[in-house]
Amino acid sequence: MATQHSRSAARIMMAPAVILLLGWMLVPLTMTLYFSFKKYLPLRGGDLGWVGFDNYVRFVSSSTFWPSVQTTLIIVGGVLLITVILGVLLAILLDQPMWGQGVVRILVIAPFFVMPTVSALVWKNMFMDPVNGLFAHLWQAFGAQPVEWLSNASLFSIILIVSWQWLPFATLILLTAIQSLDSEQLEAAEMDGAPPLSRFAHIILPHLARAITIVVLIQTIFLLAIFAEIFVTTGGSFGTRTLTYLIYQRVLESQNVGLGSAGGVYAIILANIVAIFLMRIVGKNLDA
Amino acid sequence: MARAVTTRRKAFNTLLAWSIGLLIFFPILWTILTSFKTEAQAISDPPLFLFFDWTLENYAVVQERSDYTRFLWNSIIIAGGSTVLGILIAVPAAWSMAFVPSKRTKDILLWMLSTKMLPAVGVLYPIYILFIELGLLDTRLGLTIVLMLINLPIIVWMLYTYFKEIPGEILEAARMDGAGLKEEILFILTPMAIPGIASTFLLNIILAWNEAFWTLNLTAAKAAPLTAFIASYSSPEGLFYAKLSAAATMAIAPILILGWFSQKQLVRGLTFGAVK
């Protein structure tokens, strides 16, 4: 059916998207690589020449690097753990027969549609504020000392905010996956007297494995890049400086472009490692 | 589901699910409620839930003081513009990949997806510098282009999965009946593709509306959309909870409503068709 004529037409139809994305990828990437080998301080002398791998070495040997890696891992790991575990439980619950299922689903999904700056600011001020926040009122009602969330429990607070934003995503995808489960299989297991826990472990969880992997991979890529949630809450202080935020500070705040670009290359490599795994799964799905 | 369920079990599920649902929704509900309070009531101890003097004053103040409509307009133009532009570029590409697949189609699709994985912060400075050089910094045009580019892979993917579902036999049947390429596209494919295009449009409006890396870093006063407008509330002066809530409510309301319509598309779009 595909003639020579339609093949060349297809190529022309694809060209704009391919060329644009190629440019979007190659131009900035080349520039980042270029800057990463230079001592480049736009506000203090500009281009000060080639320095080889100096920026790469300095970026990882600076005292801020390892703490930022640790912070990144804690935030990404914490959010993944919370969203996947609660997501599985919520998805199972939402799959049960109940009244007003549609409305509950809407309530659960809603946080995903709130823009990151809004959710961060609402949590910061109206819930976590040590004087006027709802948590402070709640703590006082029980006679406890209000907590300074964003300075004394900063990582936990960020994890809470980000988990709230991403739980709907995990729940929705896992729910979609659960709904494709063959209910006869579950019924058969129930008839055979399998207790709920073993039905969960032997039927539901294996069925969800692929969806969970996808949730983990996609969220990891987005979570490695979270920015606004830190930008408007702590501004990277109190131990919340992630790798992304550190690079941002190097590049735009202290205008050390060479150093920041080397950090950027590290971030790109890191994201690509995760991406490879995601692409494998998605690619396999294309063949099916 | 064919399983017989006792009413008691159903009641229990309902109660549990509603409690959790309301708990998750609570921050949004609380924000909406607070936007109708006076500033004094907004921080009253104990907190007031429903019994306060409902007022619309905050909405008027936010509009007057910070010119909300200007930010709203920027958001609409940037999110809408980038989505329309993206779809115009993606439709032909997804079309040809779905109907005239070649050996490389899969590689091209996966490569497009990989550009989406590029961490923004890794290319922040190059884009920043290019924007200054090209006079695009703090312009709606510049942001529209960047948001179009970052969402283009998702748009292509979504359209591709929708177009894939259009059966090729229909085209052959039409050709037998003597339809030319133009008739084929105009009268057969387009009507079948419209629902997919509409879903893609919806999801991408949401993604572009909420994007908060480039919109914060590439705008200042002129082209700032609602994400940046809200961020300006991070350094407050005096009493501001009620006004913050009013501003937040206005920023999220349009997208919350759109979002409720797009739950299904969300799964397909954000998992690149891997979960349907």
From TrEMBL, chain A:
Q: How does it sit in the membrane?
A: Multi-pass membrane protein
Tell me yes or no: is Transferase among this UniProt entry's keywords.
Answer: no
Subcellular location per the Swiss-Prot or TrEMBL entry = Cell membrane
Residues passing through the membrane, by range: 12-37, 73-94, 106-123, 155-178, 208-232, 263-282
State any GO CC term. Answer: plasma membrane
Family annotation (InterPro entries): ABC_transporter_permease, MetI-like, MetI-like_sf
* Listed GO biological process terms: transmembrane transport
> Which key words tag this protein in UniProt?
Cell membrane, Membrane, Transmembrane, Transmembrane helix, Transport
- Primary place of residence? membrane
Pfam families membership = BPD_transp_1
Ranges for domain ABC transmembrane type-1 come to 69-278
Per the record, the similarity remark reads: Belongs to the binding-protein-dependent transport system permease family.
Name the record gives this protein: Sorbitol ABC transporter membrane protein /mannitol ABC transporter membrane protein
Q: Which organism is it from?
A: Roseibium hamelinense
UniProtKB/TrEMBL annotation, chain B:
- What would be one Pfam family of this protein? BPD_transp_1
Instruction: Tell me the keywords, alphabetical order.
Output: Cell membrane, Membrane, Transmembrane, Transmembrane helix, Transport
| Membrane topology, record value | Multi-pass membrane protein
* Top-level taxon in the UniProt lineage: Bacteria
* Annotated transmembrane regions: 12-33, 71-96, 108-131, 143-163, 184-209, 240-261
The protein's name in its UniProt record? Sorbitol ABC transporter membrane protein /mannitol ABC transporter membrane protein
Classification via InterPro entries: BP-dep_ABC_trans_perm, MetI-like, MetI-like_sf
Annotated localization:
Cell membrane
Domain ABC transmembrane type-1: residue ranges = 72-262
Name the family. Belongs to the binding-protein-dependent transport system permease family.
**Cellular component, GO annotation:** plasma membrane
GO BP of this protein = transmembrane transport
